[in-house]
Amino acid sequence: MAPSDRLNQVNKHLNYPAGMLAGQVAIITGAGQGIGAEAARLFANEGAKVVIADIDAKKANAVADAINAAEAGRALAVAGDVLDSNYIKELVKRTAEFGGGKIHIIVNNAGFTWDGVIHKITDKQWDTMLAVHNTAPFRLVREAAPYFRVKDQEPRIVINISSTSGIHGNAGQANYAVAKAGVVGLTRTIAKEWGPAFGVRSNTIAFGYVTTRLTAAKEEGAFITTPDGTKVALGIPGKQLATKKGAEDKAKTESFPDIPLRRPASPEEAARSILGVASPYFSYVNGETIRVTGGRNM
């Protein structure tokens, strides 16, 4: 595609009344809750058809049903485990069918933490983090290659979700930090391989503190179950618990001295950054790591 053609395509979408992502088809992994679910809703509101990929079928269907209640046929739930290569094949196949033979956007958002200090992290903890955050996104992008390595003058975008743990490191998260650092290398390689001939944009978003189950108190009991049945507790141990009634007051008064905005992001705020990167307003942003932190770690 010539540069002028690409610019015309961008301008077309900037002026498209049906939404910034009108006519596009997106896969969002880990979209059954939290940031992924909010991103799916925002994408659908901007005209995209969205595939909700999540290991929890009940949650994935709930998100899809809520989107389709507003406009039928806008979302499809495809539940499964991103660590299963057969599921990845099925996910891409069903997305292409849902999208009329096209896929435009992949958001590799699925992930979780399995913390431990370096001298106590097991091989299983280490291998699982790399499998979830590196191998699964790679397999999904590889499987979707035939739908991205095309010259039809339509946008093609890969967004890989990382963390500031992957940029700065974080005590107790050697496995997670290494995996999230690896995401950056994958992103930039996609940009360099698929950008020149096909115009594919590939960017990383590195989140800081977002109020999700990964940053809630571990004592609240959230967990994820690995394929072999191991339950992995999620959250931050020892974090002060708050009742539902007191949560809003706590959020208003709790101090976050290391965040210049003095508060964490909401899942919807985090999702807005994903929409922004996917939008035509970011048409010339490629191979970048965009930090969404409220100013933390400047």
UniProtKB/TrEMBL annotation:
It comes from the Eukaryota. The keyword Oxidoreductase applies. GO terms for biological process: fatty acid biosynthetic process. GO terms for molecular function: oxidoreductase activity, acting on the CH-OH group of donors, NAD or NADP as acceptor; quinone binding. Gene3D superfamilies: NAD(P)-binding Rossmann-like Domain. Keywords: NADP, Oxidoreductase. Residues 24-197 form the Ketoreductase domain. It holds the Pfam family adh_short. Residues 243-267 are annotated as: Disordered. Residues 245-255 have a biased composition (Basic and acidic residues). Transmembrane segments: none annotated. Belongs to the short-chain dehydrogenases/reductases (SDR) family. This is Glucose/ribitol dehydrogenase.
